[in-house]
């Protein structure tokens, strides 16, 4: 009776052995392919034109979880700086070259009195080009309001002499539409393409503007800019012109209040006897430097002492980590804006809306007989709206209070 049972037992053992052997062979064949696939994936990413700020990858090509929280070197492997357009020509000097100020009948403000007193010296510096250059870095991204924001900011910067405007656009391609508006201000400028790495876009709190600012830092280093002042100014912020004269002669790091921030409505250094001793900000979050991005300026001479200074992809901690990376000390901070009693920059924010789709069920070429043809094309190129023949809100015209179809003009 033991013979058949023994035979069955041996057959079962043989089957198990064959199964295990098959699994081992399958794994031996599969793993090299996976590794080669991951290597191929890495190679494909390496060859992308704009590879800004991708973190180091694990052996299988997946990002280490801890890498999200690390500060990466400014220049990464295969990182490329994409300069779209650039001009060093200042063609708006007539705007600030006036030698006289308009008559003031009322009692002049403190700012006006200071301007009268400093005007001769400032004009001499402007003529001789001896003032330190302000490198004004503006991160931006394609959206309905982008061009309107750039126009408003450009109108302010037109009045600031000795300024180089670095506009870093969160896109893989170079926007000709954006460039056409930047260029018309006559300000020396550089337009960069600086897309946020894909791995960060899906995060709930995506680190917006980091890739843009890192690209600007990259440009400053590659062009060996070691004199002047660095300032990060968003395209939707509001700036008092006095701010620029305040920060222009920053020795190391200057700081000042920013209005419309957080639950306090303000973010500011706390100053006593002309020295910064702490910070007033409604979101401490264990930050050593709880300041807003628009609340400080850095001397490029001081920045050059920290060749690895960078800004990490860590939402909410960009300012803190950047200032840590340049080795800032409390005693190095220069309080501006009358010992931080004035607000010279406001964190205004434009409400973002989805671009509407307008339905026009007719030959678009007919609209060229009206102003609407060119107007709608211009708005569409800016991303303000979209025109469709079959979707969206039906376009109508109003004539003498009555709604008319567009065919009214062509019937």
TrEMBL record:
<keyword id="KW-0808">Transferase</keyword>
<dbReference type="GO" id="GO:0015018">
    <property type="term" value="F:galactosylgalactosylxylosylprotein 3-beta-glucuronosyltransferase activity"/>
</dbReference>
<feature type="glycosylation site" description="N-linked (GlcNAc...) asparagine">
    <location>
        <position position="339"/>
    </location>
</feature>
<feature type="active site" description="Proton donor/acceptor">
    <location>
        <position position="319"/>
    </location>
</feature>
<dbReference type="GO" id="GO:0000139">
    <property type="term" value="C:Golgi membrane"/>
</dbReference>
<comment type="similarity">
    <text>Belongs to the glycosyltransferase 43 family.</text>
</comment>
<keyword id="KW-0464">Manganese</keyword>
<keyword id="KW-0333">Golgi apparatus</keyword>
<dbReference type="InterPro" id="IPR029044">
    <property type="entry name" value="Nucleotide-diphossugar_trans"/>
</dbReference>
<dbReference type="GO" id="GO:0050650">
    <property type="term" value="P:chondroitin sulfate proteoglycan biosynthetic process"/>
</dbReference>
<keyword id="KW-0735">Signal-anchor</keyword>
<dbReference type="GO" id="GO:0046872">
    <property type="term" value="F:metal ion binding"/>
</dbReference>
<feature type="transmembrane region" description="Helical">
    <location>
        <begin position="15"/>
        <end position="35"/>
    </location>
</feature>
<keyword id="KW-0812">Transmembrane</keyword>
<dbReference type="Pfam" id="PF03360">
    <property type="entry name" value="Glyco_transf_43"/>
</dbReference>
<feature type="binding site">
    <location>
        <position position="236"/>
    </location>
    <ligand>
        <name>Mn(2+)</name>
    </ligand>
</feature>
<keyword id="KW-0479">Metal-binding</keyword>
<dbReference type="InterPro" id="IPR005027">
    <property type="entry name" value="Glyco_trans_43"/>
</dbReference>
<keyword id="KW-0472">Membrane</keyword>
<protein>
    <recommendedName>
        <fullName>Galactosylgalactosylxylosylprotein 3-beta-glucuronosyltransferase</fullName>
        <ecNumber>2.4.1.135</ecNumber>
    </recommendedName>
</protein>
<comment type="pathway">
    <text>Protein modification; protein glycosylation.</text>
</comment>
<dbReference type="GO" id="GO:0005975">
    <property type="term" value="P:carbohydrate metabolic process"/>
</dbReference>
<keyword id="KW-0325">Glycoprotein</keyword>
<keyword id="KW-1133">Transmembrane helix</keyword>
């Amino acid at each position: 009776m033991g013979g058949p049972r023994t035979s069955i037992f041996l057959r079962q053992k043989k089957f198990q052995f064959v199964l295990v052997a098959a699994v081992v062979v399958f794994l031996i064949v599969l793993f090299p392919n996976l590794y080669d696939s991951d290597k191929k994936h890495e190679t494909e990413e390496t060859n992308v034109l704009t590879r800004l700020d991708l973190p180091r990858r694990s052996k299988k090509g997946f990002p280490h979880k801890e890498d999200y929280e690390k500060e990466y070197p400014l220049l990464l492997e295969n990182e490329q700086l994409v300069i779209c357009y650039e001009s060093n020509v200042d063609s708006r000097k007539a705007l600030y070259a006036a030698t006289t100020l308009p008559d003031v009948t009322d009692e002049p403000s403190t700012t006006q009195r200071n301007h009268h007193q400093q005007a001769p010296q400032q004009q001499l510096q402007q003529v001789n080009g001896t003032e330190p250059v302000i490198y004004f870095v503006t991160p931006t991204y394609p959206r309905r309001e982008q061009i309107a924001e750039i126009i408003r900011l450009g109108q302010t910067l037109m009045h600031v002499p000795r300024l180089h405007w670095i506009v870093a656009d969160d896109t893989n391609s170079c926007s000709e539409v954006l460039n056409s508006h930047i260029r018309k201000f006559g300000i020396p400028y550089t337009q960069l393409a600086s897309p946020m790495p894909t791995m960060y876009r899906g995060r709930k709190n995506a680190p917006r503007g980091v890739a843009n600012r890192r690209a600007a830092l990259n440009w400053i280093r590659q062009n060996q800019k070691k004199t002047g002042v660095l300032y990060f100014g968003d395209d939707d912020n509001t700036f008092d012109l006095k701010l620029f004269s305040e920060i222009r002669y920053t020795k190391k790091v200057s700081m000042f209040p920013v209005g419309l921030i957080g639950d306090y409505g303000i973010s500011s250094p706390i100053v006593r006897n002309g020295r910064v001793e702490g910070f007033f900000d409604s979101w401490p979050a264990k930050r050593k430097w709880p300041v807003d991005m628009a609340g400080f300026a850095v001397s490029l001479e001081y920045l050059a002492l920290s060749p690895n200074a960078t800004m990490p992809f860590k939402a909410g901690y960009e300012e803190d980590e950047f200032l840590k990376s340049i080795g800032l000390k409390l005693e190095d901070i220069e309080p501006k804006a009358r010992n931080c009693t004035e607000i010279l920059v406001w964190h205004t924010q434009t409400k973002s809306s989805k671009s509407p789709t307008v339905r026009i069920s007719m030959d678009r070429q007919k609209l060229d007989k009206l102003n609407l043809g060119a107007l709608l094309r211009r708005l569409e190129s800016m991303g303000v709206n979209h025109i469709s023949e079959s979707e969206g809100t039906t376009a109508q015209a109003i004539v003498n209070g009555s709604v008319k179809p567009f065919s009214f003009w062509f019937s």
